[in-house]
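Sharing a chain and its predicted structure for anyone who wants a worked example. Both blocks are below, sequence first, tokens second.
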Amino acid sequence: MLLLAPAALAGCGRRKATGYPGYCFVAAQDSHSLAVVDLSNFRMRGHVRLDAAPSAILPHPRLPKVFALAGDAGILYEVGAALSITRRAHVGGQALGMLLSADALWLLVRESPALVEIPLDSFAPRRRIRLSAPPDDFDINGDRAVIASRAAASVLLADLKRGSLDYTASVPSDTNIVRFQEKGDQIIAGSPADRSVSMLDAHTGALIVRLPLAIEPHHFCFTPDGGQIFVSGPGKDAVAIVYPYRSEVGETILAGRAPAAMAVVGAYLLVTNPQTNTVTALDIESRRLAAVVSVGREPRHIVVTPDSQYALVLDEKSGDIAVIRIASLAARHYKSAPLFTVLPAGNKPVSAGVVTFA
């Protein structure tokens, strides 16, 4: 049931809310299932039962279906809009995550460390790029992948087209988060214990700069043009702003209690605050607080609809999806914005993906 009816929105002088023509698939880890929400009317469409605990969701790049990864079991599922498992693959060993290249899924496997390729056409493991040490995180840009390994105190660059490693670069020993900068020319690596962000040349692995932070970097969030990186983590109730093109930390701004996962949508940076069960919305241009939204218990993940109209917040402890209408964040006199609706998701929702109707 909607918390704020369209008629009420119209009465406030705002444009009438409309749904999004698609589904949101939510991985409910402890329920061993995927909850499916019809975003055109914000109603539950149903559930897909799995035989293992899902840990990640990725939408198919072209079709109305998703890939669900049960990381601990090393199982990958393909699930269609008919709410059924259409294909599955076993990768052998614990998988930490999955990402898409042009025509394949790549899974980061910790046991017998490797990147494992799952082509979208065959949906069966093909090539394995073997790694020298257990990995912790990775990212893909085009035909390249970068992998962080705390055990090896390094990041590795892999050529996905050739199926081989290009180079290894040394970084602080606890580096556990790594991303390509938007244009793919730089690698951004975060070290919590060192409280620093390292920038490396993505083509050579050479260190460009190591920037000290006031917080432990646990989460990165980029603006669409890649010109700003928002960094959150323990240490302060704040988010650090890094400018990769200038190789500097710009400023650190307050972002609610214990900021965690983030998302950029329109003019706003949305920051989850699990300890206070809120989402803090910051105006990116002014750096000022735009609104605070009370959500469910322990919000830890945010997914934005492709039309940037809604933010879907996954509340791990209360097991629901809190829906924020982005238009409701503007011009808040008391800095408090309402929820659009709340929907059940199952026990411990940990990931979600949105697909558009065919």
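Comments welcome. Helices lie at 6-11.
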